[in-house]
């Protein structure tokens, strides 16, 4: 009986060997040391993307408008609320970069995780392919042994 051919093509064997031997690079998410800017960006994004912030801001805006529309207090910002618009524009102008920094850092973490997931999937695919090849070889070996046994039995019967 001839020796079995390699189960995987050379390129797949090299890739599988590389994936098996590669240690997992630490994810940026596991990085305990964040810069001050990253911490601030994460805290600002977390605060501004929360329901308490939305509720508090909405309440402040409603109170501001009511106080400036009713005659109970002096109108420091009469309708059309130019000072309020300026304050909200200022808030948006400063909040946007913080939120973008936080999102960029999260996107980098997601990319690293996706790269790792892809490598795991490729490795699993190659391992499954290898197992299929081994099962096919075993089946072929068993089939050839059965044929051999049948031929011996036929020889005995003749």
TrEMBL record:
Question: Keyword Transmembrane: yes or no?
Answer: yes
Query: What is the name of the protein in this document?
Result: DUF1003 domain-containing protein
Database matches in Pfam families: DUF1003 (PF06210)
* InterPro entries to which the protein is assigned, alphabetical: DUF1003
Sorted alphabetically, which keywords does the UniProt record give? Membrane, Transmembrane, Transmembrane helix
TM ranges are 44-67, 79-101
Q: Which domain of life is it from?
A: Bacteria
């Amino acid at each position: 009986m001839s020796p079995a051919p390699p189960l995987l093509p050379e390129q797949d064997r090299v890739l599988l060997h590389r994936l098996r031997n590669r240690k997992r690079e630490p994810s940026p998410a596991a990085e305990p040391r964040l810069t001050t800017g990253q911490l601030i960006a994460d805290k600002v994004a977390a605060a501004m993307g929360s329901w308490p912030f939305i509720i508090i801001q909405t309440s402040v805006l409603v109170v501001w408008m009511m106080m400036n529309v009713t005659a109970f207090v002096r109108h420091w910002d009469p309708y059309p609320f130019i000072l309020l618009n300026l304050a909200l524009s200022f808030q948006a102008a400063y909040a946007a970069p913080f939120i973008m920094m936080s999102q960029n850092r999260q996107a980098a973490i997601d990319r690293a995780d996706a790269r790792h997931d892809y490598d795991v999937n490729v490795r699993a695919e190659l391992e499954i392919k290898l197992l299929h090849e081994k099962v096919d070889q075993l089946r072929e070996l068993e089939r050839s042994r059965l044929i051999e046994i049948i031929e011996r039995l036929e020889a005995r019967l003749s």
